[in-house]
Amino acid sequence: MRTLAAGLVLALFPAPATIDTYLDRALDATGLPGVAVVVTHGDKVVHATGAGHDAHGNAVTENTPMRVASVSKSFTAAAVMTLVEDGRVELDDEVHDHLPQLPPRITVRHLLNQTSGISDNSVDIAKLTEARTLADYVGLLPPVNAAEPGTRFAYSNVNYNVAARLVEVLSGESYEDYLRRHVFEPLGMHDSLAGGDAPNGFNSLYGVWFDRPELGDGPAVGGSGTVVTTAHDMGRWLVAQNGHGPFSAESLATMHEPSDVDDYGMGWQPDGNGLLVHSGNLWTYNAIQAIDPETGYGYAVMTNGAALVDDTSTILAGLIALSRGEAPAEPDNTRQLVDWMLAAFGLLSVALGVLGVVRARRWAERRRGRRSWLTAARLVAVALPALLFVSYPQAVSFISSGRTVLWSQLWYFALPLTITLAVAALAGIAVITARVVRLVSVR
């Protein structure tokens, strides 16, 4: 009965032209430079396509290389599971036995479930960005102030980069080669590679997209976010994740099921609507993948632009609606609105700064004879943007659920916010300087 129902769903699925039309509308609405998508069902690719352009001015198609960021984690989990299937490691083996830089009691399962006790706060993330190989990366880890393994979930790229290094140690091959030979090639993903080449992605500055090289902030080949692939290849991957590939049913179930302390599996997580998903955000690319175990559908959305607003989930929701015979919600250009608001705030800061400097003498004369603490308080109030800017990375890290965000990274996806805060801070400093100079001169 379920097979019949699934077949009816596939028969009712809109023609590829309908997906193309939706993707064109989404591209127009969001203003993204380029998008590639794929929809699969069972053992078939329903449609893989692209729209927009890359940094070279070429049309984005189903064969355009795209960086998929943290979607890479599910590939790393699959690579580890091939070693498990070959009997070269057990999920409950301690990683310390193979990588002594790691604390004892952390198992392979803990790494893939993100329950190792390692978080961004337990290591020096800034130091790790200096590594250019996985061996260097693991060598730079100590000291690791990990919590008790298996007791709590903490999402960190460290877990999956360590897992990739473990693949190298156990296999005697580079992670890049192992992933290619044991995951990509068996699936027919011939245009996919860890650390592969892709055109420059894009960042948005006050609504204007411009291309720039991806930020190098760690190993060129890693397990947490360095896979470059295409919509065509992602179709083969999604088909395999829905049980039509070389992975055993047991391995798929292990990768998809949650851990004992969180709903995160091994590179997959339920979204609350019956799907398993994983998103990825780099500094110039975004991506998201999803599979529906009940209906056998699979979806992937990849964009070559990264901004404060990530539109991949919105486009994914539209594809899901189409697969269910529903009218997709029209995407909007929230990114443009946010950028314009930040631009307006930046211009207002400049105007208030100029006004504050021009009126500094008048302000200082009005402060003459008044309580000094009140004058100091007014100066501190003007200094708030500068104080916020100084603590900007820490503030962003705090609202990012404990993920460490570095200064260099804030000049990419968050560029309009960073520049706006910098302008506001400079305007405040200019006003404070002018007021202090005038206060000294009138006394």
UniProtKB/TrEMBL annotation:
Keyword Signal: yes
Residues annotated as domain Beta-lactamase-related: 20-310
Database matches in PANTHER family: BETA-LACTAMASE-RELATED DOMAIN-CONTAINING PROTEIN, D-ALANYL-D-ALANINE-CARBOXYPEPTIDASE/ENDOPEPTIDASE AMPH
Recorded superkingdom: Bacteria
Transmembrane portions of the chain: 340-360, 372-390, 410-437
Signal peptide: 1-19
Keywords of the record: Membrane, Signal, Transmembrane, Transmembrane helix
Record has Membrane as a keyword: yes
Listed name of the protein: CubicO group peptidase, beta-lactamase class C family
Coiled-coil residues: none
Native species: Lentzea fradiae
